[in-house]
Amino acid sequence: MTMYEPYPVPELAREHKRFRYSSLWTFAKQDLRLLAFLLLVATCIGLGVGYFWASIFIAFLIFFGFQLRSLYMVNEWISNRPYDTPPNLNGIWGALLFNVYRAQRQERIVQAEMVGLIDRAQSSLVALNEAVVLIDDLHQIEWCNPAAENLLGIRVFDRGHNILSILRQPKFIEYFNHIDQAPDGIKIKSSIFDDHYVQIKLTRFGEQSRLLVAYDVTRVHNLEQMRKDFVDNISHELRTPLTVLSGYIETFTDQEDLNPRWKRAFDQMQSQTKRMNALVNDLLLLSNLENNKTIAKNQIIEMPSLMNQLFDDAQAYNADYGHTLNLDIDSHCDLIGSDTEIASAFSNLITNAIKYTPKGGIITIGWHDDGVHGYFTVQDNGIGIDPKHLPRLTERFYRVDSARSRATGGTGLGLAIVKHVLMQHGAYLDVISKENEGSIFKAVFPKERLYQMM
C-alpha cells in the first residue's frame, strides 16, 4: 500500500467513532476517573498505615507516570511510525491521537486524489499531437511531452536546459522576450524537417514561468501561400488586358460622332473597367502587405502636413457628395512608419466615410494623442453599422450591405488593407458605431510610434 492510497479505518478509529462529536470533557472524564480511583486507593492505604499525605503524593506520581507513558507513546508514534495505526490510548491522549490520525488520513486521501488528477492530466498531455513545454522562472525546461521532440527537437534529457539554447531562431528569442507584442504567437520554420512550419504560443503563469504550446501548421501555411501566389499572379495577369480594354474604351468614348446608345454602353464599360482596375490594385497592395515586402517603417511622418494633404484630397473626392468636412489636429506628435502605407490606410478610412455617408453629412478627420497612444480618427454622422457586423469589418470582401457597396464602387478590400498596414505598425483599428447615429473609425498607435521634437 502506497502513502497515497486511502487507509482502512483502524480499530482505534472505530472505538472512538462514538466520540467524534463529543466534547473534550467526555475524554477528560476517563483521566479524572483514573485519578479518582488512585486517590481513593491511596486514601484507604494512607489511613490504614498512617501515611495519608505520602500515599496521596504517591497516587499523583502514579497518575503522572501514566500520563508520561502516554506522552512517550504519542511522541514515538508521531516520530517513527506516523503512517501506522496509532497506539490504543484512553483519555485526552487517545482523543489527540484519534484527531491527528483522522486529519492525517484525510490529507493522504486528498494527496492521492491530487496525484491521480496530475497523472491523468499528464497522460492527456503526453497523448497530444501538439508540443507542450513547461518553462520555469530561469527559462529552463521543467517538463515536455513526446510531441515536443518531433516538432521542436526538445528531448526528455533536455530538462534543466535553457529553452533559448535549444530554440535559437532570432524570431523566437525576440518573441520569448516580448510575448505581449505577439498575442497570437509566432510562426517559425521547423529546425527538424525542411519545409515545415510550426506555430508557437507562449503563456505566462506564476511569476516568470511560461507554458509553450506548438503545433504543425505546414498544411495551413502551404494553402495560404498558394492563395497568396494565386492572388498575386492573377492580379498581375489581369492588369495588362484591363489596361488594353480601358484604352480602347476611352478611345471610343471620346469620339464625337458616337451613337448615344453606344456611348451609354461604353460609359458603363469604362466604369466597370475602372472598378476592376481598383480591385486589382487593392489585391496587389494587400498581397504586398501580407508578404511583408521590405518597406521601411522608420520614416518620420510629419502629421500636420499629411493631415492637410489628406484633407485636400478628401475635399476633391467630396465634390459629388456635398458633405461638410472638418479637420481637427490637437497633437504635436509626428508618426514613425511608412509614409506611403500610412497615407493609403488613412485615405481608405476617409473615402469610406465619404462614400457611405448620405449626401450632406458631416465628417471630421482628426489626429490626437494622450501621451500613451496616438489616434487617427474619422467620424461621420451617417447611417452607422449594426454591432453584429463590427467583428468582421476587416475581412476581405466582407460587406455590410452588398447592394450599397456595388453602387458606391467599393472593392471590399479597403478595411483589410487598413488592418494589415496598422498591424505592421504595431497599431490596431477600433470601430465605434450605432445604427442611425454614425460611426467613428479610430487607428490607435502605440507610444513607440509617436515622435515629438524636443
TrEMBL record:
Keyword flag Protease: no
Where found, per UniProt? Cell membrane
Give the SMART domains listed for this entry: HATPase_c, HisKA
Q: Gene3D superfamilies, from UniProt?
A: 1.10.287.130, Histidine kinase-like ATPase, C-terminal domain
Q: Which InterPro entries match?
A: BphY/WalK/GraS-like, HATPase_C_sf, HATPase_dom, His_kinase_dom, HisK_dim/P_dom, HisK_dim/P_sf, PAS, PhoR_N
Q: Which residues cross the membrane?
A: 34-64
Q: Where is each Histidine kinase domain found?
A: 233-449
Q: Which BP terms in the Gene Ontology apply to this protein?
A: cellular response to phosphate starvation; phosphate ion transport
Q: State its Enzyme Commission number(s).
A: 2.7.13.3
Instruction: Name the Pfam families for this protein.
Output: HATPase_c, HisKA, PAS_8, PhoR
Q: Which PROSITE patterns match?
A: HIS_KIN
Asked if the keyword Transport belongs to this entry, the reply reads yes
Q: What class of enzyme is it?
A: transferase
Gene Ontology MF term list:
ATP binding; phosphoprotein phosphatase activity; phosphorelay sensor kinase activity
The reaction(s) this protein catalyses = ATP + protein L-histidine = ADP + protein N-phospho-L-histidine
Q: Which GO terms describe its cellular component?
A: plasma membrane
Major location, coarse class? membrane
Alphabetized, the UniProt keywords read: ATP-binding, Cell membrane, Kinase, Membrane, Nucleotide-binding, Phosphate transport, Phosphoprotein, Transferase, Transmembrane, Transmembrane helix, Transport, Two-component regulatory system
So what does this one do? Answer: Member of the two-component regulatory system PhoR/PhoB involved in the phosphate regulon genes expression. PhoR may function as a membrane-associated protein kinase that phosphorylates PhoB in response to environmental signals.
What name does UniProt use for this protein? Phosphate regulon sensor protein PhoR
Task: Kindly list the organism's lineage.
Answer: Bacteria, Pseudomonadati, Pseudomonadota, Gammaproteobacteria, Moraxellales
Which gene codes for it?
phoR
